[in-house]
Design brief:
Elements (H helix, E strand, L loop, with lengths): L5 H10 L20 H4 L28 E19 L2 E4 L5 E12 L2 E17 L13 E17 L4 E20 L1 H8 L7 E4 L1 H9 L8 E11 L9 E15 L4 E8 L3 E2 L2 E15 L4 E14 L7 E9 L4 E10 L7 E8 L15 E7 L5 E11 L4 E10 L18 E10 L4 E17 L9 E17 L1
Antiparallel strand pairs: 1-2, 1-3, 1-22, 3-4, 4-5, 5-6, 6-8, 6-9, 7-17, 8-12, 9-10, 9-11, 10-14, 12-13, 13-16, 14-15, 15-18, 16-17, 18-19, 19-20, 20-21, 21-22
Length: 480
């Protein structure tokens, strides 16, 4: 019977609610590498022992550890550098420092390895202040913070001295904060079935608004200054809207000879429930005649919101590790991330409360708004290359390179979701104090990339997004 020590179960239960897993990821929404050993080597991880973080990579490789127990305590820093530009105006994202702890435990005996771990999967986000060009001249903050994390139960088995197979069951959770202002032109594009170039908006709330919106032939509302989606708690620890689900992984590694090992893994698509919150606001700023002549009105409609069918995509990859000399190991992976299966639309369904505090919001009570922003992401092939040089029994130096083509089409690039970086250079080291204790460190730099959403050439302007990122990972390992 597989038994995980009670102290580790208690530790995981205590840490889980506290993990700020907002990883501003750089292979689309994935991180370029999981754990500092692999991250320092460009993320390559399929065919060698890379500690408990292997449960995020190829779970079979946890079986490459020596018999005994291993406890890893992890800390990561993510430093995105994001800015957007439109019409000669530039806005820098204030979301430039995120901290991410994690932990993993493994036990191996007689060829069977199992454990438990908590790691951030990835995400994306930005924070533009109330004075940016996105604030619609109304002091509106625009921010997104999407985070996805996993509690993982891995298991691997050494079939013989060459082949190891493994898998994991993953509990997955996701959180999202969103504050997003939309111009009249953007909202009109989404609500008009004859347009809808950036997304769609429908439902009884849209119908009620359209009946009053004079540009659509209604009566009462002459102008929409902005529409504003707002559900955000500003916490680094959890998103306002939350969803939970499951996923799994399978992997294998085969030692061809004393120098060459090959590996492969498959990560399933998640099965996440909708991310939901009962505390959301859709705010409309209008110029309207509600019986006292045309005046400006701010109408906050309170309600609940559900982000529908957000899933993390399936991934499969292969790789190899080659012991070129007694001191030098080289590793290379190729990974395919199936973004096109899950990132077609970003869809939210808002249901207004039956009772509204604002008197002008009463006409929208109980109505619903179904809004979808087109994403249309492409599948992504990621190349991960790295090397590790053992200087002596204590010190190992590592370096690597990671490339994945930008999966986000320029037509649907949103300044709040700039997951566009492609190239990464990485480095790091490992240091063993003794046979029981060691540390590993990595630093990753995503080279700056710039892409432009061309807009529609008239009412929706072109917006350029620039994104670079520097991050590091650190892990302390204790074997006993």
């Amino acid at each position: 019977m597989i038994r995980i020590p009670g102290r580790l179960t208690a530790l995981c239960a205590a840490i889980l609610p506290l993990l700020p897993l907002s990883a501003h990821a750089t292979n689309g929404m994935n991180m370029e590498g999981y754990g500092p050993i692999a991250a320092a080597m460009g993320g390559a991880s399929m065919a060698y022992d890379n500690g408990s973080a292997a449960m995020m990579n190829n779970p079979a490789t946890i079986g490459m550890m020596d018999d005994g127990d291993r406890l890893d305590a992890f800390f990561g820093f993510l430093g995105p550098d994001v800015e957007s530009e439109a019409g000669g105006m530039t806005a820098e994202s204030d979301g430039n420092a995120y901290y991410m702890p994690a932990a993993g435990f493994l036990h191996k005996r007689e060829g069977l390895t199992y454990g438990i771990g908590m790691y951030g999967q990835g995400g994306m986000g930005t924070e533009y202040g109330s004075s940016s060009f996105m604030s619609m001249g109304a002091g509106l903050e625009n921010r997104t913070e999407l985070s996805v994390g996993r509690v993982i139960a891995p298991l691997s088995f050494n079939v013989n001295d060459k082949l190891v197979v493994g898998g994991s069951l993953d509990f997955v959770w996701a959180g999202l904060d969103l504050r997003m202002a939309m111009s009249e032109a953007q909202f009109a594009d989404m609500a008009n079935p004859a347009a809808q170039t950036i997304g769609t908006a429908s439902g009884s709330l849209v119908n009620a608004f359209g009946a009053m919106y004079e540009p659509f032939g209604g009566a009462g509302i002459s102008r929409l200054d902005f529409a504003y989606f707002d559900y955000s708690n500003g916490s680094r620890f959890s998103g306002k809207a939350r969803g939970y689900g499951a996923a799994g992984k399978l992997g294998a590694a085969y030692k061809v000879n004393d120098r060459l090992t090959v590996g492969a893994s498959y990560h399933s698509e998640t099965r996440l429930g909708d991310m939901e919150t009962d505390d959301a606001v859709v705010r409309m700023s209008v110029n309207a005649n509600f019986g006292a002549g045309y005046q400006d009105y701010d109408i906050p409609v309170t309600g609940k919101i559900a982000v529908k069918d957000f899933q993390w995509p399936s991934t499969y990859g292969i790789g190899a590790a080659f012991q070129a000399t007694d001191k030098l190991m080289l590793a290379a992976d190729v990974k395919r991330i199936n973004w096109a299966d899950t990132m077609q639309d970003f869809r939210m369904v808002f249901t207004a409360d039956a009772t509204q505090a604002n008197p002008y919001a009463g006409g929208f009570a109980g109505l619903d708004l179904d809004a979808a922003l087109f994403q249309r992401w492409d599948d992504q092939t990621v190349y991960q290359l790295g090397g590790a040089y053992r200087v002596d029994k204590q010190l190992t130096l590592r370096a690597g390179y990671n490339h994945g083509d930008n999966p986000v089409p320029n037509t649907y690039l949103n300044a709040l979701f700039p997951a566009i970086v492609e190239d990464h250079v990485t480095a790091g080291f490992g240091y063993g104090f003794n046979e029981k204790q060691s540390v590993d460190f990595s630093v990753q730099h995503a080279l700056e990339v710039s892409n432009t959403n061309p807009g529609n050439g008239s009412t929706i302007p072109a917006v350029t997004s620039r994104h670079a990122q520097t991050s590091f990972q650190f892990i302390y390992s204790h074997r006993f």
